[in-house]
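Sequence, please.
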């Protein structure tokens, strides 16, 4: 017995990391176990640019407008527990951004291929895409994988459309049967697990109710959840929300596509997000809130250029808010200036769950995104990427392509063979194409660098 005790003593000296306590304490280190139990809630705001994201300060990339956008108190409060990203780039429209979020791939990749919003004659997300829920399933962590709200990665009229979200990996899906925009926020069809029903509940409220149901189900089943909550609001049609959700009491029930209805719907969305967050435990849940593209022209206010809004390749369309809050965020209430993109949400979600991305991706399958978790852990983290890319195209990646690539300061925008070059630090509204004047040596070098990066990126297809 004495010899056995001496052996254990010497092992403890040689292997200081060996646990000699309660056997139940054996296994992965505590941070990894905590990550595996972490809930991840991805909230997508439809048609919300940084210009209306009042939880951003002007020092964090938002420019003041006339009229000013409404206050968003619940997102502003959430920011105190998180990090906002000042240089976050997505695609110019809803379906392309969703495709990059879902796949971790740029639009021109063969396992993505979405360059415009999906309509009857548009390509759909390919079945070969190894989407976010499939990656979670490969990790075998018993997550409840739920999609709530707008889908818009396939077309509602295509064969098997009623089961499409489940086919692409979601255990549970509930959202508008239209796939994309609805015709009426107070009268629409809901698709739930392949079955249709009518609803006359204000859509933003309905989507919030459905999200809370998923959270309560996960709690009852004692499972962590990954939820993709894609609100339709404040996308058209512009309908006045229920009066207890906003302060725009004087508006008629419906109206033209103007700023006031957009603001009322955005304010109502923030109110419902506040209700949602009452069901969320931020000590074990990471909340990721982002815009899918910039503010549409009809809701754009000066000094923003309506022609540079949604569906363009300018900053007004692709520079949107990103707020990550809750579990995993250290020193919250700050802004991060490092470059980030919608394509990075895939890798970030996996990292937050403690999933080794290299172990779950199929052999030979690579993604373009990188994890943003280093930014959540440190205010002085090294940049995770040197460039940020965005594009748009029609039927395929060479059909009327629009592409942009930027570094921390400069941006190259290319439509076909036409180029524009901007200094985003001194010209955030992109009013001055530097190629029309004399370039400094620094600008000449930056332009060359961005051209090379774009060429190399497209050649890697």
């Amino acid at each position: 017995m004495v010899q056995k005790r001496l052996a254990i003593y010497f092992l403890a000296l040689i292997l200081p990391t060996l646990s000699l306590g309660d056997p139940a304490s054996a296994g992965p280190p505590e941070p990894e176990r905590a990550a595996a139990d972490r809930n991840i809630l991805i909230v997508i705001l439809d048609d919300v640019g940084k210009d209306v994201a009042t939880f951003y300060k002007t020092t964090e990339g938002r420019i003041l407008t006339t009229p000013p956008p409404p206050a968003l108190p619940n997102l502003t409060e959430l920011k105190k527990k998180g990090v906002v990203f000042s240089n976050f780039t997505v695609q110019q429209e809803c379906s392309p951004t969703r495709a990059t979020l879902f796949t971790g791939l740029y639009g021109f990749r063969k396992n993505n291929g979405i360059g415009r919003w999906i309509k009857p004659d548009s390509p759909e997300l390919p079945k070969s895409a190894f989407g976010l829920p499939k990656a979670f399933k490969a990790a075998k962590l018993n997550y409840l994988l739920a999609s709530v709200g707008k889908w818009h990665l396939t077309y509602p009229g295509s064969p098997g459309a009623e089961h499409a979200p489940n086919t692409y990996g979601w255990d549970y899906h509930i959202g508008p049967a239209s796939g994309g925009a609805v015709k009426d926020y107070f009268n629409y069809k809901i698709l739930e697990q392949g079955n249709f029903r009518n609803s006359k509940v204000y859509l933003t409220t309905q989507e919030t109710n459905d999200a809370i149901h998923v959270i309560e189900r996960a709690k009852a089943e004692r499972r962590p959840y990954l939820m993709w909550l894609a609100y339709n609001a404040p996308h058209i049609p512009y309908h006045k929300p229920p009066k207890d959700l906003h302060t725009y009491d004087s508006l008629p029930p419906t109206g033209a596509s103007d700023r006031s209805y957009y603001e009322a719907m955005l304010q109502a969305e923030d109110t419902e997000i506040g209700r949602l967050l009452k069901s969320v435990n931020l000590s074990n849940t990471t909340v990721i809130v982002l815009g899918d593209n910039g503010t549409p022209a009809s809701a754009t206010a000066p000094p923003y250029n309506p022609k540079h809004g949604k569906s363009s390749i300018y900053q007004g369309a692709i520079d949107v808010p990103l707020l990550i809050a809750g579990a995993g965020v250290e020193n919250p209430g700050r802004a991060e200036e490092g470059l980030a993109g919608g394509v990075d949400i895939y890798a970030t979600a996996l990292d937050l769950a403690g999933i080794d991305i290299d172990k779950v991706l199929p052999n030979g399958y690579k993604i373009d995104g990188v994890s943003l978790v280093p930014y959540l852990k440190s205010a002085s983290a090294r940049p995770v990427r040197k460039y940020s890319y965005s594009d748009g195209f029609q039927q395929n990646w060479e059909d009327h392509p629009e592409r942009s690539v930027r570094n921390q300061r400069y941006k190259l925008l290319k439509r076909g063979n036409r180029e524009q070059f901007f200094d985003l630090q001194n010209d955030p509204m992109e009013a001055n194409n530097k190629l029309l004047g004399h370039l400094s040596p620094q600008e000449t070098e930056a332009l060359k660098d961005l051209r090379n990066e774009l060429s190399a990126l497209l050649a890697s297809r």
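Residues 203-221 form the longest helix (19 residues).
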